[in-house]
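As a warm-up, study this chain.
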Amino acid sequence: MTMMDRPSLDQLAQITEPQMVRRRFDEHNLVWAYVISWFFAIASFVMVASSLAVRKRQGGHIAAAIVDAALTLFIIASMSELRKARRRRDGWKPRSYSRLVGRNLSACLITLFVVKFATLTYFALSDNGAWIVWAVIFPTATMALRLLLRERLVLHGMIAAIVIAVALIAPISRKQTRVVGLFIALASVQAFCFTVGALTSRGVKRAAIEEGVQLRTEAREQLRIRDELRFAREVQISMLPEAPPQLPWADVAGISLPATEVGGDYYDYFIVDGRLAIVCGDVAGHGLASGITLSALRSGFTLLRDELLDPAHVLDRLQEVVAHSSRRRMMVTISVLLLDPGTQRATIASAGHPPLLHVHASTRTPDLIELFAPPLGARLGDSVPQTVVPFTAGDIFVLHSDGIYETTDASGEEYSLERLARIVAACDGTAEEIRDTVLRDVDQFRGTGAQEDDVTIVVVRIV
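Now compare it with the structure written out below.
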């Protein structure tokens, strides 16, 4: 992980203290070195122009100046791409050579400083004492770099070696004969710059570790929550039926699409004495608390499945299950459809759930069957109402959650029950084809907006 990469949650959770420090140092050095490199570039071009103007310097001087300028421009180009990669949010990646510099930024900057210092002092040898100016400027510039102690020792050690070599070979006037005094002065500058740079880097290092440890702790906590939600989602998905029942007289298809990791919708099938009971429910809200309530509700239906021949009675008994599934007041809208192929009667019970859609095969007209009652958990003492309607071959029943008809488009307009009824009435296919047609139409209506609520639909087509 380099400073140009935006760390993922998993990377933050595993980041080490050395990586924290390196990332912080590189972020600072990228800005500072970019500025100082332009100063180096200007100095390099001045040297090249000076070498070309003076004929006697056309040999090694010009070659050294060109190599130096090429190195400077290479570093500038690399850091420009690295800075661009950090600013952009579209995943743009810099070229391979820039990524190489980014992974070894401190080493590249040390190399740049050493090469640049050696080149500038080399060109200043002919000017009496001019190289001393660079021997002061460069150590001063290193104070702004954030380096580890061993890296700073290497940088100042190499600068000191160059200073000693140049001082021994440089022409010194009579006024500069005190070489020992010169060494002491330059050594003092080196020591001061080294100390200031080391202390500053140490403070930044300490702050980087403190902040990094906090980010790592938060990342690990988020990962823990994410894993728990993922597990809760897997548990909830396992509560939904794997496949619809295979019946000779009914074609069934259902699906539930949660808006978050743990949704609040639920549906299930039960075969009771040759009859088909379909349950469709929606816990107010969604999240982990909704998943817990749904788990309790499913357990209740499983225990009371033999009593589903009277759906309203089962829902009345489940009032207490919902009321005591959580300390928070949870409310569940739920509907049960019981289909009896022998009598060709459909018994419908509902506790505050959206209207059940019934499309008659003979007329292709849709009916919205709505039973007014409070949801389970409201604790109002009302009994769950139920009604009985006849059906014939070709009829279609649709149970659904409010996540379908309350879907809004970009202008805020709702999908509506009327549109759902028209889409289903216009379909002439299997239950799965009707289900998928509705889902496609809802997606097209929503457009690019995010799904804000759980979407559940169960379609039954009488054969």
